[in-house]
Amino acid sequence: MSTQDSPDGWLANSLDRQAGVALTAFAALLVVTAATRWLAIRDTVSPAAESAVISALATTVVVAVVGAALFSIIFVRDTAGALSYLIDKAVKIEDGNFDVNLESPRDDEAGQVYHAVRMRDSIVARLKEVEAAQQEAQEAQREAEARAERLAEQADEMSERFQAAADGDLSVRADEDINEPALATIAASFNDMIAEVEATVENVRTFATEVENASEEIDDTAADLAAQGDDVADAIERIAENATTQNDTIQGASNELSDLSASVEEIASSSNEVAEQSEAAAQLGSDGNEAATEAVEEMNAIREKTETSIEQVEQLESEMDAIGDIVTLIDDIAEQTNILALNANIEAARAGGGGDASEGFEVVANEVKSLAEETADKTDEIERRIDDLQTTANETVEEMRETGDRVDRGVETIDESAELLLRMVEQIEEANSGIQSISEATDSQASSTEQTVALIDEVADLSDRSTDEANEVVELVESQAAELSRVTTRIDSLTEQATQLRRQIDSFGSRDGARPDTDVMSPASIASQSPGDD
Amino acid sequence: MFVQTATFAFTAGALIISTVGFLWFTTTGDYENDYLYLPPVITLLAGGAYTVMAASSSGVIAADIILEARYADWLVTTPLIVAYLGLVAGAGRRTIAAAMAADAVMIVAGFAATTTGTAAVRWAGYGVSSIAFLALVYLFVTAFTDALGSVSAAAQGMFRTLRDLTIFLWFVYPIAWLFGPSAAGWISAVDYHFIVAILDMSAKIGFNLIIAFSLVRVTELVDTTEQPETPA
Hints:
The structure holds two protein chains of two kinds. By secondary structure, chain A is mainly alpha-helical. In chain A, 88% of the residues lie in helices and 0% in strands. Among the domains of chain A are: 7-137, no CATH class; 232-329 and 402-492. The radius of gyration of chain A is 82 Å and the shape is elongated. Chain B has one domain (2-225): Rhodopsin 7-helix transmembrane proteins (Rhopdopsin 7-helix transmembrane proteins, Up-down Bundle), CATH 1.20.1070. Chain B contains seven helices and no strands. Chain B has helices at residues 2-29, 38-58, 66-89, 93-115, 119-146, 153-179, 189-218. In chain B, helix 2 runs antiparallel to helix 3, helix 2 (38-58) runs antiparallel to helix 7 and helix 3 (66-89) packs antiparallel against helix 4. Chain B starts with a helix and ends in a 14-residue tail after the last helix. Chains A and B meet through helix 3 of A and helix 6 and helix 7 of B.
């Protein structure tokens, strides 16, 4: 809703304001009516009635104004709002903004107005567009007709010259001074083209000669190449054979290495066993050493005992000597007793023969004599026995001394043995550690051998593949050779065509107007193949 | 007192009929609107209050509680009217709460001014009530109206009509009060009750009618997909 400065405009362009003015006028009219009616009856009513009447009139006026205002707000305001909304849209359309949305949610009269405005608007625009297009089309048609006539005449003339050029006369030129710009352009283009064709034909002639020479060279080269290709194929076949042989060899090596791997593993396990046995031997050696030490101790004890025994035997011997002395003494006594008995006997004989006393005395002396003799016999026997004992004791001492010497020698021997055993234990331990390191080395050797076997297997795969590839290459080289022979054939025909081309161009450049008698190479296609165009 | 009782009774009847009519209209018409339950609640409460006032006026209820019933009615129904306006406009919760608070202050101060015996309290109450009313009008035309961008054109039109009706009619109440028995005394108590009854009916039944007319025209008020124009 646009507001204008003048009071006339302020009132004129808003239904709202008009309704407000009408409502105010209505209220004023009511107040004036009530006031005049009250003045007319004022003198006739009592003071008590006066205030009641004023109250009634005021109430009526208030209620009437409220009623009028309700009507104005509910209907006039709503209608004015709908219209001003439509006016906004119309103004936008007037300003050229045809994208304005003329949809209205309303179904009443206001909504129908929106609908009507939308229809008209689009039809008018369409009609104007159609008229303008029609006029343009008519003018264009007239212009085109006049121009077409002019063009036909000049085109005829130009066509004759083109025909001459088409017949082989490359010296002909079109007239460029025509007032029809399109034809003048065509003429100029034609002249440029003919000049270029002329130059091109010359180039092509030279080029054809070059092609001829070049293709002959290529022919030779191709033959060489074919021969070389055959050689290459042979060489590769040999390579393939060699690769197969190599593959077999590698397969054999792989198998042998596998065997070697197995035997190395066996060695590893055997060396482990040996290591265990040498450990057991070392244990045994150290046990023997201990036993020898014990034996030496026992021997020492024996020697001590022996020495003690020797001493005792020697003591026994000296005691026997003492016994001998005693026996000698007894022997002496027996001798003297015997002598005494003899003396007694003698005495008895001197004393008298026959009497009893001498007889008794004689008997006693005989008895003492026999006792002394018996004692002498016994002491002899004791002496003899002591001698025997002494001999035996001496022998025993001798033997014991011998035994002591032997024990000494035995101790020495056992000491030496113990020392030897110790050294043996050391050596066995050394041997054991050597065997351990051999075992470790063998283990790592076994794993290395396994890796080598894996590597050789890979190599075998590779050589398999290279055999296949070599076979493929052989096939490729063979097909290449076939291809090459085809190329040779092609080049031969190319040489032939180049010769033909040169002959034709020779006749074409003679400008005698004679058309070349073959359509293999038209001037246009020669021009498009010219190296000058590249 | 017959005229006064008849006025109250008639008003109560009209409000209750409006309630029933509006409910019948909205339930049979299948209209899409989130807040259609509020207007019948407002008219029903007002109808109840007028029934009490008629009973008090006719002596069915011994005590004279006409003014108490009226202001109690207003203390509940006028904030609900304010709330409905705010919801239709799409205003924020805090704005709506502030407007309802101003409305409650207006009613309470008006009750104090009407029932007091001392002139000072009377005019102070009238002043506070008037200021609260002006603040409420200010919120209606600024914050509520500014929030309108988010609702459909049809809802915008309805809001403007409801807002203008409410502002105009609510301006008449303090003017009539000035003429009435509490102030100038040019209008008698019976006539004053009559004017207030007319105003109450206009404000509440008119409110329902405007909503009904808007619904008939466009069937959907709150659907925002129907915005007819976006600036090119």
